[in-house]
Amino acid sequence: METVLVVDDEQGILEALADLLREEGYRVLTASHGREALARMSELRPDLVLTDWMMPVMDGPALIKHIRTEPEWKGVSLLGMSAVDVAALRAEYPGIPFLQKPFDIPALMKQVRKALDGKRAL
User: Fold this and answer.
1) pLDDT per position as a tens digit, 21-35
2) Is 112 exposed, middle or buried (0-12, 13-18, 19+ CB in 10 A)?
3) d(CA 34, CA 42)
4) For residue 82, which of 47, 51, 36 has the smallest C-alpha distance?
């Protein structure tokens, strides 16, 4: 069973995404900011981190940077989501796919599957 860590400071979005991913058959971990996400990753290494970009305590960019610098998390797939224009984010953070909030469920699930399929191909 593949594990997805969902990181978002908006509790309603966090719970909705977690429920949706569980219904699709994924094991789901949740965190409300980047620092909490790192603690959860130490408990159970996820296959994918789906993270909001603007959060308190530790935001998405700081979380991604930390994940990318830790050898133990090499190979963890990353997927960002933001309400700001994601075109600029894609240019600034190459290699990380982004979802523009609000997004529709089929688009989200397509990106999750694509990220996890890419991980399996490594």
Assistant:
1) 999 999 999 999 999
2) buried
3) 13
4) 51
User: Which residue reads 């699930």 in tokens?
Assistant: 109
Alpha-carbon gap, residue 96 to 18, rounded angstroms: 21
Structure confidence by residue, pLDDT tens digits, 36-70: 999 999 889 999 999 998 999 999 989 999 999 99
Q: If you write DSSP's letter for every residue of 16-60 in order, what string do you get?
A: HHHHHHHHTT-EEEEESSHHHHHHHHHHS--SEEEEESS-SSS-H
How many other CB atoms sit within 10 Å of the CB of residue 111? 19
What is the reported pTM? Answer: 0.90
How many other β-carbons are positioned within 10 Å of the β-carbon of residue 24? 15
Per-residue pLDDT of 81-113, as tens digits, reads 988 877 777 777 777 888 888 888 999 999 999
